[in-house]
Amino acid sequence: MSVKTPSKLEKILRAGHLGVTSECGPPRGSDPEAIKEKAELIRNHVDAINITDNQTSVTRLCSLASCIHLKLMGVEPVLQMVTRDRNRIALQSDILGAASFDIHNMLCLSGDHQSFGDCPQGQNVHDLDSMQLIQLVRRMRDEGKFLGGDDIKRPPKIFVGAAANPFADPFEIRVPRLAKKIAAGVEFIQTQCIYNLDKFEEWMKLARDRGLHEKVFILAGMTPMKSAGMARYMKNRVPGMDVPDEVIKRLSGVPKEKQPEEGINICVEAIQRLKEVEGVSGFHIMAIEWEEKVPEIAERSGLYPRPVVEG
Amino acid sequence: MIVADKKPIEEIIEEIKDYNKILILGCNECVTVCEAGGKKEVGILASALRMYFLNQGKEMKIDERTLERQCDNEYLEEIRDIADEYDAILSLACGVGVQFTAERYHSVPVYPGVNTCFLGATEERGLWTERCQACGQCILAYTGGICPVSRCAKRLLNGPCGGSSNGKCEINKELDCAWQLIIDRLKELDRLDDYEKIFPLKDWSTDRAGGPRKVVREDVKL
Amino acid sequence: MRLQYPANIKIIRVPCTGKIDVLHILRAFEKGADGVYAVGCMEGDCRYESGNFRAKKRVEQAQQILNTIGISGERTRMYNLSSGEGPLFAEIAREMTEKIRKLGPNPIKLAKKKAA
């Protein structure tokens, strides 16, 4: 697979290195310092940083502007874009806007339902779904065409990603769904947070059985738990999250002040185990409001220093 | 059918309190089946409103009438002779009936007495659920007869999203995940391979997005 | 059993309390009744399985409407008793009459008189 975009993340993955990405949520205000500070903490330990797009439907500074801030710092962004808030005009327009700042990675998502956020009475758009957004970006990039058929002057050069949740239901279509996203044109996948390693490995095996691991880069999603309380919350309250009881038990088994450290240990051990799984191309470390721990996790997991590729 | 729900009596009182003569106009079709605006509901509402206003020291003339349909001119004509006798008409029909009545009787204000909710079915008495959003381009042939446009909270044509859990939707644990239903159904029909076909971008111009719609049938026009 | 119960009560027979509708209750009040109560079979003993449960719900609906329009919902209620409980029937009649007496006359009746 030859490199198709100037994306550093793509080059690292295609060179056969384990890729490392992380994630920052933009602030609920217009001060960009929060993003810059978070990025500064982790920039040397990751290849690219995702910027979430009004995650859980809570209104925040926009993903695109945040990505531009990263770009201006010399940090590689992954623009997350949800179909919840944009119709096909806005999607194409924002893709071009991102490309105009040479943002080279995008994650195509449908987005959490607005009922979870601060505007539950709002409309949602869903003119396209995430699968169709993948197709749209690939068409704009590879064919240089708008949906309407017109040519795009200077088409976007974007490495196309999507999410996958190996734990959502129904399990039997989880791998077919991955295959479907690959058929739509996705090039990298960042998974939902993985705590049930056995189930994830089963999913990977089923993906390998169909040769899917050779058609897409799968970055395993990792989120360290800060406490047993957080683990219980994730298990019970976050849809599509699979947190085995052993994880909760292990965290509860240590005193409260030691739980964050134990959470990091669990995360590091998981990365070390999953590094050996064929088809795992890297890790997406989402330390939610705990970005300062990403360097430690990367270092202890043997993911540091990051490879240097020619830009 | 078109499913409607009753408006709170307080809201209706607010709508009509300044009038003296009101006609409460029911409809014998969908709103009768969903027990929101049929003859019986007209009677209950009329009785309650009469008592309310009487109790407030106001004698309000509140009459009852239920038409076969309010979405059909010929039935609406049945109140031609009496419509002018009223200060206002309170229609318990769906939004279509309310508007059609208003279009027919320009000089009488028409108020809605129900909230029109969706196109749905009676699952059991007292439980009506949505099945169709009238998108104008039916795709049920490809989705095992289950509509993701009306039954998936995100209208996903290539679902399910990551929020599907134990067959339920992320927004409400009592709501079935439409894509779980579709997959179960495809499996029953031995058509699960169809799941991997990517559903192309939908033409929403036949949906609400295309503006007010009409169906013109020259073949049946008189 | 020549049981005494208040003479101010008018009995309306229905084949089953399941026949009673919200509308019947409201119309009775509109016509000037001070109180309306339904007497059904014991829960679980309905000959038609769920008639008395339906009545219970409809009485509740009527209570809600009456409260909304400023007439106490307490003026209507549901009782359950078996056919062999004549003394209880009389007692209920007394209880209901006493309760309604305390609430006073139906305000609609008074409003009508005033309007006339």
From TrEMBL, chain A:
<dbReference type="GO" id="GO:0071949">
    <property type="term" value="F:FAD binding"/>
</dbReference>
<dbReference type="InterPro" id="IPR003171">
    <property type="entry name" value="Mehydrof_redctse-like"/>
</dbReference>
<comment type="pathway">
    <text>One-carbon metabolism; tetrahydrofolate interconversion.</text>
</comment>
<keyword id="KW-0560">Oxidoreductase</keyword>
<keyword id="KW-0274">FAD</keyword>
<dbReference type="InterPro" id="IPR029041">
    <property type="entry name" value="FAD-linked_oxidoreductase-like"/>
</dbReference>
<keyword id="KW-0285">Flavoprotein</keyword>
<protein>
    <recommendedName>
        <fullName>Methylenetetrahydrofolate reductase</fullName>
    </recommendedName>
</protein>
<dbReference type="GO" id="GO:0005829">
    <property type="term" value="C:cytosol"/>
</dbReference>
<comment type="similarity">
    <text>Belongs to the methylenetetrahydrofolate reductase family.</text>
</comment>
<dbReference type="GO" id="GO:0106312">
    <property type="term" value="F:methylenetetrahydrofolate reductase (NADH) activity"/>
</dbReference>
<dbReference type="GO" id="GO:0035999">
    <property type="term" value="P:tetrahydrofolate interconversion"/>
</dbReference>
<comment type="pathway">
    <text>Amino-acid biosynthesis; L-methionine biosynthesis via de novo pathway.</text>
</comment>
<dbReference type="GO" id="GO:0009086">
    <property type="term" value="P:methionine biosynthetic process"/>
</dbReference>
<dbReference type="Pfam" id="PF02219">
    <property type="entry name" value="MTHFR"/>
</dbReference>
TrEMBL record, chain B:
<protein>
    <submittedName>
        <fullName>Methylene-tetrahydrofolate reductase C terminal domain-containing protein</fullName>
    </submittedName>
</protein>
<dbReference type="Pfam" id="PF12225">
    <property type="entry name" value="DUF5981"/>
</dbReference>
<feature type="domain" description="Methylene-tetrahydrofolate reductase C-terminal-like">
    <location>
        <begin position="111"/>
        <end position="205"/>
    </location>
</feature>
<dbReference type="InterPro" id="IPR022026">
    <property type="entry name" value="DUF5981"/>
</dbReference>
TrEMBL record, chain C:
<keyword id="KW-0411">Iron-sulfur</keyword>
<keyword id="KW-0560">Oxidoreductase</keyword>
<dbReference type="Pfam" id="PF02662">
    <property type="entry name" value="FlpD"/>
</dbReference>
<keyword id="KW-0479">Metal-binding</keyword>
<dbReference type="InterPro" id="IPR003813">
    <property type="entry name" value="MvhD/FlpD"/>
</dbReference>
<protein>
    <submittedName>
        <fullName>Hydrogenase domain-containing protein</fullName>
    </submittedName>
</protein>
<dbReference type="GO" id="GO:0046872">
    <property type="term" value="F:metal ion binding"/>
</dbReference>
<keyword id="KW-0408">Iron</keyword>
<dbReference type="GO" id="GO:0016491">
    <property type="term" value="F:oxidoreductase activity"/>
</dbReference>
<dbReference type="GO" id="GO:0051536">
    <property type="term" value="F:iron-sulfur cluster binding"/>
</dbReference>
<feature type="domain" description="F420-non-reducing hydrogenase iron-sulfur subunit D">
    <location>
        <begin position="2"/>
        <end position="104"/>
    </location>
</feature>
